[in-house]
Specification:
GO terms for molecular function: 5-hydroxymethyl-dUMP N-hydrolase activity. This is Nucleoside 2-deoxyribosyltransferase. The chain contains 6 helices and 5 strands. The chain has 161 residues and is α/β, with parallel strands linked by helices. Helix 2 (45-52) packs antiparallel against helix 3. A 5-stranded parallel beta sheet has the order 2-1-3-4-5, with helices on both faces. 48% of the residues lie in helices and 12% in strands. The protein has helices at 15-31, 45-52, 58-81, 96-107, 132-139, 152-159; strands at 4-8, 35-37, 84-88, 112-115, 144-146.
């Protein structure tokens, strides 16, 4: 039985982000024998597309509110099921959804690797790479924040033994 890695990431919001995630990050993890739990694919497109296609207005807002509960529950269940999390920390600040997933995984005592390939400063002070609480929860169970994708491959086996 392969270990399952949940990939927490805001990269699914953009075409460029998806290209990097599905062309670089996910293949690197899969090459090491891990099964991917991808929150961008946990909720079926058949459920989401009709809501996305609705005209702007109160009905669409209500449908999104209902669907958001399904999406959140699917993601929470996948984090409970995973062996660990790889979290993408790029952006001016760590994405709030990714930060929430990191906190939830840390509370469940899941190991976490944080990847920040973004060279912009994003820390509270010189002692951290990203928000100090995010970094604390990543390192809480022996995880690490890395800044080069090349470091992910060797770290996977070390952190997710």
């Amino acid at each position: 039985m392969s270990k399952k890695i949940y990939v927490a990431s805001p990269l699914g919001f953009s075409e460029a982000g998806r290209a990097f995630m599905y062309g670089n990050i996910i293949p690197t993890i899969e090459e090491q024998g891990y099964e991917i739990l991808d929150p961008w694919k946990l909720t079926s497109r058949e459920l989401m597309q009709p809501v996305m296609d609705m005209p702007y207005g109160p009905e669409k807002k209500q449908k999104w509110a209902e669907l958001n509960k399904v999406i959140g529950a699917n993601n929470a269940e996948a984090i409970r099921e995973c062996s660990g999390v790889v979290a993408i920390l790029d952006g001016v600040d760590v994405d709030s959804g990714t930060a929430a997933e990191i906190g939830f995984a840390a509370a469940l005592e899941k190991p976490i690797i944080g990847y920040r390939g973004d060279f912009r400063l994003s820390a509270d002070n010189e002692g951290s790479t990203v928000n100090l609480q995010v970094q604390y929860f990543i390192e809480f169970r022996g995880g690490k924040v890395i800044t080069q994708l090349a470091d992910l491959k060797p770290l996977l086996k070390e952190i997710f033994m």
